[in-house]
């Protein structure tokens, strides 16, 4: 049964990862704009709504779906080679990606409470984290070192 569902699960996994990554790239960029333009008339509340919707409507469901389908794929005996390094490097980067997601969610809450202390530059630097982790994941899965 899993053999017949494999392409569907893999397709759903890829779509969820793309959606999750889009959110992980965009939310810190919204934080940059929030810091730099949030003091303009009424803009802070606009950014807060955008950040909340992105996190709750797109990022959280995409992350949950990516994790669920990824675990299902990992349980298929022909998918992973635990003698290789790549499943471990992918998993480590995935844990990092999940940490970054949680960090973004916390930063959103801090913004909503009016307690942000980070600068636009700091958010720009943090925006590079998902890119580095994505490179590790893609190289791990495609090159299979």
Please describe the structure with a list of short key phrases separated by commas or semicolons.
mainly alpha, 5 helices, elongated
Short recap of the structure:
With about 140 residues, the chain is mostly helical.
Structural commentary:
Helices cover 81% and strands 0% of the residues. It is an all-alpha fold and 145 residues long. The protein is elongated, with a radius of gyration of 17 Å. It has one domain. It has helices at residues 2-37, 43-74, 86-112, 120-126, 129-143. Helix 1 runs antiparallel to helix 2, helix 1 packs antiparallel against helix 4 and helix 3 packs antiparallel against helix 5 (129-143).
Taking the sheet with the most strands, its summary is: none
In angstroms, what separates the terminal alpha carbons?
A: 30 Å
Helix segment tally: 5
Order of helices and strands: HHHHH
Strand content: under 5%
Low-confidence stretches: none
Q: Count the domains.
A: 1
Q: Report Rg.
A: 17 Å
SSE-based structural type: mainly alpha
Give a count of the beta strands, DSSP E runs of length 2 or more. 0
Mean pLDDT level: 94
Percent in helix = over 70%
Q: What characteristic shape results from the CA principal axes?
A: elongated
């Amino acid at each position: 049964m899993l053999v017949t569902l494999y392409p569907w699960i893999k397709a759903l996994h890829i779509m969820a990862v793309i959606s999750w990554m889009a959110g992980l790239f965009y939310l810190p960029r919204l934080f940059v704009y929030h810091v730099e333009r949030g003091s303009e008339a009424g803009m802070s509340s606009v950014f807060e709504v955008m950040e909340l919707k992105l996190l709750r409507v797109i990022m959280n469901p995409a992350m949950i779906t990516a994790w669920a389908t990824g675990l299902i794929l990992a349980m298929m005996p022909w998918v992973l080679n635990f003698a290789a390094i790549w499943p471990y490097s992918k998993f480590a980067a995935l844990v990092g990606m999940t940490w970054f997601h949680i960090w973004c969610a916390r930063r959103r809450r801090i913004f909503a409470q009016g307690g942000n202390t980070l600068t636009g530059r700091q958010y720009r630097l943090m925006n590079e984290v998902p890119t580095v982790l994505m490179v590790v994941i893609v190289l791990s899965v495609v090159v299979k070192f």
